[in-house]
Amino acid sequence: MTRLSLFVAAAVFMASGPLYAADLLPHQKLGLWQQTITRDGVAMPMGASELCLDQAAEHKLSVFGGRTAGGVCEPAKVTHNLDGSWSADSECRLASGIKSRAHALVVGDFNSKITTTVDSAVAGSPADSLNGTHRMVIIATWLGACKAGQTGGDMILSNGMKINLLNIAKSMRALTQKMSP
Q1: For every one of its 181 residues, what pLDDT tens digit does the chain have, with 9 covering 90 and above?
Q2: Which residues of 159-178 are buried (b: 16+ CB within 10 A; e: fewer)?
């Protein structure tokens, strides 16, 4: 997945301010979640990944968790829809001139399965393939408890590589602050 695609998907819910009254937002069940991602109908080459969520990681990495740093994104407008789904709209601007707007629809019980569909429009990217409208679908399925030795934020990629998203988020915040106007 390209960095910009990740940024657009994450930015929908990780805005620079409060999204919705925190006590009203649903929380993902703690434990191990398998995630698959498609972009414009094509499975991402990275395949399925597994993400370990403990309480601290869930607060920052779940569907409604965390924030991006540097004021790159406007606070997302989150709505709890009558059918039980959630939707969010966000807009982000990077100093490099890249602008994105995204609308996300989140459906699921937050205990066993969550499907997030993000429709985005990107402009100003030097990579032409990123500009235009795109649809990303992220399906997260709860697998059970995190595996022995895993800590919150650990992600295991399909090739077996293990990364910690909380550590990456710190690095991205520093980078985003340097890139913001």
Answers
A1: 344 444 444 444 433 334 445 557 888 999 999 999 999 999 988 889 999 999 988 888 777 665 444 457 777 788 899 999 999 898 888 868 899 999 999 999 999 999 999 999 999 988 888 899 999 999 999 999 999 999 999 999 989 999 998 888 666 656 555 555 5
A2: eeeeebbbeebeebbeebee
pTM: 0.77
DSSP letters along 150-168, please?
--TTEEE-TTS-EEEHHHH
* Integer CA distances (angstroms), 130 to 123, 125, 139, in order: 8, 6, 22
Q: How far apart are CA 90 and CA 104, in angstroms?
A: 9
- Count other C-beta atoms under 10 Å from residue 125's C-beta: 18
